[in-house]
Each structure stands twice: as C-alpha cells, then as structure tokens.
Amino acid sequence: MHPSDRDLVVARPEGLYCPAGDFYIDPWRPVARAVVTHAHADHARRGHGAYLASAEGEGVLRARLGDIALQTLAWGDAVDHHGVRVSLHPAGHVLGSAQVRLEHGGRVWVVSGDYFVSGADDANPTCTPFEPVRCDCFVTESTFGLPVYRWRPQAEVFAEVNAWWAANAAAGRASLLLGYSFGKAQRLLAGVDDSIGPIVVHGAVEPLNRAYRAAGVALPATHAVEALDKAALARALVVAPPSVLGSAWARRFGDASDAFASGWMQLRGARRRQSLDRGFVLSDHADWPGLQRAIAATGATRVIVTHGYEAVMVRWLQQQGLEAGSFPTEYGDDDDAA
To answer: What SS3 class is residue 106?
Structure first.
C-alpha cells in the first residue's frame, strides 16, 4: 500500500509510523516515541525512548519490560502531540490491550493492535471488553481471518477443561494445561473450577498473575510446584507456557495428562498437538464473525490489515465495497499468544 498525504499511519522499517505526530505504534525496532497497544512481545519491545500505553496495562507492561519511561492514559482520555489527538480504547484481547485512535486534520484513524470481540456471555473476564470506535480508516489484525474460525461459547470450552481436569484428578494424574504466560494463562485461571483441586503455575506465569491481581482481576489461589506435596500434585491443574513441554520442570509431575489451549487447535490440532492428550480451542483474538462485526462497527470506508490472513481479509473487504490494503509487519510471530 503506497502512502499518501492523507495517511495518518504509514509503514516504515521501524514499524507503523504517524508522520504528523512523529511517533510509532507498536514499533519492532528502537524509536524515540512509541505508543504500545499491549504487552505481548511482538507488540511491546525494549529500547524505545518513551512509551505511551493504557493505565490498565501499566502493571503487565512494567512486569515485562522493566524500568521504562512510561506515560499512561485512562480509557478515552486524550493527549495532543504535534497536533495529533491520541486516545486509547479497550481492545478486549489481554489486560490493558488498547486500540489507538488518532485524530488530525478532520481525519480519524484507529489502529486496533490485537483484539477480541465477544458476545454478551463470552466476554474475557480478565480485561475490559472491546469497544467499537468510529473512524475513517481502521487498521485491523487478521490472525484468524478465515471463515472456518468460529469460536464456540467459552462456557462449553471451560466445561470440557474442567471435565478433563476432574477425570485426571480422580485417576491420580496431574493436568498440565499449556497456554501463553501473559493473557491466556490468566483467562484459563479465571475460567476453571478451582474446587476440583489445587492450581500450580509456572514461574513465568506468576509475575503476570500478580500484575492482574493488582489491577483488580479476580484469579483463584495459585501455588508454586514446591509448595505442594506429592498427593496434592496428583490432583493439581498445572498452568504453564508451551515451552515447558518435555522439560525437567514438566517431568516433576510424573505421568501427567497434557493439553494445549489455543485458537490454532481448531484447524491445526493434530499437527500442533503432536503427542499431547488434548487440545482446547480458546483464543484471545477475534474469530471470522468477530472481525466482521468489529470492522462494520467502526463505520470505516478504508481498512488496512496488519497481520494474519491478510490476502483473504483484503479480498473480502474489497468485495464489500471498502477500500482495503495491508501493511507488512512483524506482528503475530508468536503462535503461543493466540
């Protein structure tokens, strides 16, 4: 997509750039000023001079990036930078995930970052739900931008997770549930039935749990593996990142049943699961109908796709009579976040 004078955001080698405001959004190379939509590693990186992010996401962003020069905004509040009015609005993806609204010269653009659009009964309880923002141009993800991706109600998915855990506990086997340390792990914790048994979390998960709890998100009690005896571990649900599979840490649970929670399980189950016992389809990204609803709700006549199934989404958008194109980005290179 070739930039023009009317573009509030353009693609540069460093990332998505706002020329009028002289700042970047989720840049992947070090820059002077970065607006960060959320704290996943493909969107939030070390090395920038100054950061702007949502107040809701401050704790997780600092937990991941350490001591950074961070300015935060409450939802809907705005700052003016070189004549560009910038405000942040909930994306519903993970704690603090934001859409970036830019207003300049009578034009309004919204850069969505990653987002999750839920039904009335399917909201992610660990973050503020997605809020549609009216705009002229919407910059959207397309991680699951194929018609086959349609999420089942999360209550059904969690009923399956709980039944799997309960059956394992009754058989004296630990249940190793794999999910990305930030976002997915906390959503899993918030959705399971903690009356079934104790919950153990990996050391990579607990610092994020603390940030979630500090932000007011209710999570069940969790334990380090060292805190439980052998009998308790045999009934435990163990939440850990996929990288632990086959590790010495995972082998501490003996003959555990293992499972992976990800949106990718809908199509790539057999390949991604490999030797795992179960796969649960649970994503923190919008599915195909969710992407359609989100785009329609913006009222945008122009849509730019940043990552995922770009070509499919661009073609569909053009068939709807919208001006559509794509930006090359380095987003979405970590499947575990899905």
So the answer is: coil
How far apart are alpha carbons 334 and 338 in whole angstroms? 8
> Higher pLDDT residue, 273 or 46?
46
Rounded to whole angstroms, the Cα distance separating 301 from 311 reads 18
- Residue 28 confidence (pLDDT): 95
Q: In what order do the strands lie in the sheet with 107-111?
A: 78-81, 84-90, 98-104, 107-111, 137-142, 302-308, 323-326
Q: What is the pTM of this model?
A: 0.94
Q: Compute CA 85 distance to the chain's CA centroid, rounded to the nearest angstrom.
A: 25
Strand positions, DSSP E, the chain: 10-12, 15-18, 23-25, 33-35, 50-54, 70-73, 78-81, 84-90, 98-104, 107-111, 137-142, 175-178, 199-201, 237-240, 257-261, 278-280, 302-308, 323-326
For the domain made up of 154-280, give the CATH fold: Rossmann fold (3.40.50)
10-149+285-337 — its CATH code? 3.60.15.10
Please list, in sequence order, all residues whose beta carbon lies within 8 angstroms of the beta carbon of residue 120, skipping any fewer than 6 positions away: none
Integer angstrom CA distances of residue 210 from 60, 71, 213, 220, 302? 9, 21, 5, 12, 40
